[in-house]
Amino acid sequence: MLSELERLGLRRGNWTFLPVVPRRIEFAAAVRQRLLALRPARVAVELPREGRAPLLEALSKLPRISVLFSRSMPGGGESGEEDRPDVYAVVEPGDALTEACRTALEMGAELTLIGSAAKALPQRRDIYPDAAALGSISYERYAELYLRQPPPPAPEGSGGWEAAARLARLDRGTDTAVVLRLASFAEMLPLLGAEFPPDEDATPRQVLRGAPVAPSSLGDITEDCPWLQERYEEWRASFQSEDSARMPDRRLWLNGLWNEAEENYRAVYGGELAPWQRRQTARFLDRLVRAGGLLTPSLFDLVAAARGVIDDNFAYELWRLGTSYSHQQIGAEDEALQLNAEDVFPDTRRLRLRQRYEREKRRLAPRAWKRRPGRAPELWAAQLGGDAICSYPPEDIVIEDYGRFLRQKAVTMLGEERSRVEPFSTSLLDGVDVRETIRRWHEGRIYVRETEKLTGEAGAVVVIFDEDRENRYSWLTTWLGEHSNESDMAFYSTPPFDNLVGPGIGRAEYGGFLMTMPPGRMADVWSDPDYDLAETKPERLLLAAIGYSLERHVVYVAARPPRARMRQIAGLLGRQILYIPLGALSPEKLRKIRVLHVLDSHERRRIASRYIW
Fold this sequence. Notes:
Elements lengths: L3 H4 L3 E2 L2 E6 L4 H14 L3 E7 L3 H9 L5 E5 L15 E6 L4 H12 L2 E6 L23 H9 L11 H10 L7 E6 H7 L20 E4 L5 H4 L4 H13 L11 H20 L5 H17 L7 H11 L2 H11 L54 H6 L7 E2 L1 H25 L2 E4 L10 H6 L7 E4 L7 E7 L10 E5 L8 E6 L6 E3 L2 E12 L20 H12 L4 E6 L5 H9 L3 E6 L5 H7 L1 E5 L5 H4 L5
Parallel strand pairs: 2-7, 3-6, 3-7, 12-17, 17-18
Antiparallel strand pairs: 1-2, 4-5, 4-8, 9-19, 10-11, 12-16, 13-14, 14-16, 15-16, 16-19
């Protein structure tokens, strides 16, 4: 009975073929496992034989990452600049071809190179299913599924033709493991046993050189990011030959990268990821991975999702950590290459990140520019009057505008929820629903939409940033609007005068607030016994909003919807709560309106603009 390897064509006599997806840590692990189990006398690897000497030197320097390249002489242009290097191989720990050479040397096996420098890396366009599948299926099953597709033709000079020609000249009586790309193996299968012309290439067509890669270039030229390469090196050091079922856990390692980036984000930028941001990022990543036909995200996918959902600072921390590699030590005598992604990959993607720091910029300024006064917190604290408090008018304008935006958004969302779509029959109703018509274009019908008209407008608005289970926001305040365009407000925040930014000017952060119009009607929400049934500060604000709202609808923005009990109370009072998830709003805008400044008297408004930036 044929073994599984013989059935798949992976074993022929004394030869065992190990076709791989290059530059992926899962296949590097699979090759090491199988070579240690087979212990062949010879290992043939599809790497360019023109670079044998620099390859052996690069292998001796692992886990430092190097490249095999050739460089043309300076062109005849006026600039006289040297051409970019042509890269033929990246010698990295997570590459299966590199791992085959490395393991062969460790075992004392003969190392034979059967590749050629006919094509540089950017000229190759091999496409493989996601190598992360080796975490759930066997190596043999992956190879079988790939080889089921019709093999491409192998013209003279292709990778499969070159490998078959080199193998034809080897002694077939020696136990040999042949490690080559899956694409080359599919090309060479019809050529095994064929006759090839004698090897007239005694002199290599070109000479390859080797050099380490500059640490700043590692993120651009590696298929699996340097973070994964370093984790693979740790896995390799702890791997024992009897651990044949243990494979690298890409998902676990990427999760560790995310957690460490989150810690750095908290320490460097003072940022904190909210639960809704984690959920949104997970959904974003899931769609990115599915769109690319993959099983796990790449570092680029992680950075793109972080930038889109969180901010550029967190995305930069992910990129900085993901491209860090502690083994890339460049000595003074080494000439490290600065490479771009275009030197290694045929297709590249770019993403621009802009770090933002909450700090005062230090630069020379003309005398006419406004200068911020020096800090003197002790002197400012001595000037606190304590007779009255008031807000800073420019911030009032911003928060009132945002309140109007939330009222309009809530009504729009409710209208969309209550709309219905049906096929066109006799009436266009409220118009053609283009999206539904295109989605069901195969039915050959037009769909129209009818939107239910809402009774009443949105009145009071409640925004909850933090439910404050730990009593971090201990300052409870109610203040009245000063004119007809300002709302009455009740809010809880951090104590403003614990963080003085000017004489009698304190800076605070909202935990949550309530806005209602017209002004001049609100009593102190925090001491009103009518709201004592509330279990939390957000519920007290919501009960006050239900009581003071003159309109039927009350807008409630928070990470979680209100309890059913709150909706029952609103219904008894003829009100309806319109819930907007906090994650549905712009994080940047929320960050801006969350900060407020409190002045200890109206006179402070004359100087406040000098201290509030």
